[in-house]
Amino acid sequence: MSELITVLFGGPSAEHDISILSGLQCERVLAESGDSVQCVYWDRGGSWHLVPADTEARDYLEGAPKGSTELEIRLAHGELSFLPVKGMRKRPVELGVVLLALHGGAGESGGAQSLFAMMGVPATGSTPAAAALGMDKFAFGALMADVGLPALPRRLVVAGWEPDFEPPYIVKPRFGGSSIGIEVVDDYATAVALTTTSPYLRDGAVIEPYRKDLFDLNISFVTYPEFESSLIEKPTRSSSTAIYDYSNKYMGSDGLTSAPRELPAQIPDSVAEAMADAALRVQQATGLDGICRVDFLSDGEQFYVNEVNSIPGAMALYLWPEVPPAQILHGMIEQAKVRLSQRASETFENGAALRAAGGISGKLAGLGPRAV
Questions:
Q1: What is the rounded distance in angstroms from the CA atom of residue 292 to the CA atom of residue 308?
Q2: Among residues 339, 312, 336, 332, which one has the least CA distance to residue 222?
Q3: Confidence band for 2, pLDDT divided at 50, 70 and 90
Q4: What sign results for the dihedral spanned by CA atoms 74, 77, 79, 81?
Q5: Region 256-270: what's the mean pLDDT?
Q6: How much is the pTM?
Q7: CA 47 to CA 260: how far, in whole Å?
Q8: Could you tell me which of 260, 311, 253, 279 has the C-alpha nearest to residue 128?
Q9: Per residue in 310-339, pLDDT tens?
Q10: Above 60 in pLDDT, residue 72?
Q11: What is the CATH T-level fold of the domain 4-123, as seen in this structure?
């Protein structure tokens, strides 16, 4: 690709470190394919940095690596732009197309997408509304039930709101991913208590029945130039953990690419076909695009939609062993450009409501007492 690609990673999120790994992998893939690529790091404190090429994960242990240029977002002349913090002649940093490698927090839930939409910069990662839906486990679970996809019952954890299913329970952050903050509990009182003691559950929690017989199955999909689903993987859990947790996923030397798994998963063809169809229906129901990963639970015959990741770890490239990784990333980038061009062509109101409005005082008639 001829245009500049900016890979953005990090962010003030519990998944900050994994985002760095995903971003650096994307940088390498794009650079090796001949693309012009640069990286912007969003640190834990919320500052932005243009970082040198070819950095390694260890370079971020203390924050932005040596040789980085701190950036600030500035609104000037009706435009948002990134500018160097230091220097007499501050020129906006060209971004080209932004590839979002942000996991969790505002980076994956629609905030970053909204920022770049306001800047008029094409960025991957679905629309803000679709991204927010994908990050909200309660809303996503309710949507799956509404469209008729199989899912375990999921309820909000609120004192006095007893679930209509028996323990043991699995408690999850309502907003978040990577199995961070997930707990298995034997009673509802413990689940409620966790919403005040666990930093991952204070913004909201959901509860589901915990079934020891279920295992994880994951599938990825891309939407450009058309919908296509990947191989299905069966991640392997450590024998010491009750769930497929953060350490199972990411603590290998190569992260997700080295995590133990069956790929493709050894499951009946009928189950694999039904899961691929379910992934398509998840995409149609949510409107998510680019590259996503749908996580399922299964007993080997029946499966349940668990959650969707709109910006999956390592961009789920490991689930496409027969497809060049640069091809997948280029598809995301092209779709981001198409989405921005479609938004730019939208028509807006022509002022008829303003001309017909009359005085604002008339609009206030009938309201309650006002200060004078």
A1: 7
A2: 332
A3: confident
A4: negative
A5: 86
A6: 0.90
A7: 35
A8: 311
A9: 999 999 999 999 999 999 999 999 999 999
A10: yes
A11: Rossmann fold (3.40.50)
Q: Is the pLDDT of residue 95 over 70?
A: yes
Task: Please state the three-class secondary structure of 36-101 as a single string.
Answer: EEEEEEECCCCCEEEECCCCCHHHHCCCCCCCCEEEEEEEECCEEEEEECCCCCCCCCCCCEEEEC
Any idea which architecture 153-210 has in CATH?
2-Layer Sandwich (3.30)
- H helical segments located in the chain: 16-32, 105-108, 111-119, 128-135, 137-146, 188-197, 246-250, 269-286, 325-344, 352-355, 360-363
Ranges assigned E (strand) in 174-325: 183-185, 205-209, 215-222, 228-235, 261-262, 291-298, 303-309
CA distances from 104 to 254, 305, 366 (A): 20, 19, 45
Confirm if 121 and 29 have CB atoms less than 8 A apart: no
At residue 304, what is the residue type? Y
Place of tokens 């834990």: 44
Tokens of 278: 């379910």
Which amino acid would we find at residue 192?
V
CATH superfamily of 126-152+213-321: ATP-grasp fold, B domain (3.30.470.20)
Query: In whole angstroms, what is the distance from residue 107 CA to residue 126 CA?
Result: 12
DSSP element (H, E) containing 9: strand 4-10
Compute the average pLDDT of residues 231-241. 81
Asked, as a colleague might, if the bond just before 312 is cis with ω within 30 of 0, I would say no
